[in-house]
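REQUEST ID: PR-0412
SUBMITTED BY: lab tech R.K.
PRIORITY: routine
TASK: structure prediction, single protein chain
INPUT:
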Amino acid sequence: MESQNPWDEYLSKYKIPILLSLVGGVLLIGGIISSGILQKTFVKSTQYPSVPSGQVPSLSKIKVDISGAVNNPGVYDLPLDSRVEDVIMAAGGVSEDANSEYLSKSINLAQKVTDGMKIYLPFVGEVGVVGGAGVAGSLKDKAIISLNQSSMTELESLPGVGPSTAQKIIDNRPYSSIEELLIKKSVSKAVYQKIKDQVSI
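STATUS: complete
OUTPUT:
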């Protein structure tokens, strides 16, 4: 009679304990996975650092385009809290051929500037515009017509203003404020609403 293989004898003797051990190991691994311990550990190890709310870097510089009657027209990088006066100084100051009367009446040097702003300082015989923020090429700056100095033809270029209305505006000069267009009945309320942003005194 052949002698039994030692491994067969070992497996036969310890078959039940081995099977129980394997079943226990499978149950143990399943329990760990279902508890999420491995998942939490993996997620934690691969998490990227988050940026705390309220700590997003803020814009510290702005770009402003200034042209017209300044010594060095161009686009300038300026601090966030800059004013129109700061932009003019950065551009080398006002040139000698600037429309000084218009500047003194219509340009607010203390006005805060914003990123993408367009500023035009007029030469003698011109009027200018301080435009809102926008991309270069998309700004829709409107010419400012002087109620006290513009010709009849210039006044007629305003929306809703024909020859008779333009003549009324001229006849009622001088104006100390734009609102006097209504007080002196130079224009109707409807026309006033159309032109009030396109005129100055």
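NOTES: The longest strand covers residues 61-68.
REVIEWED BY: pending
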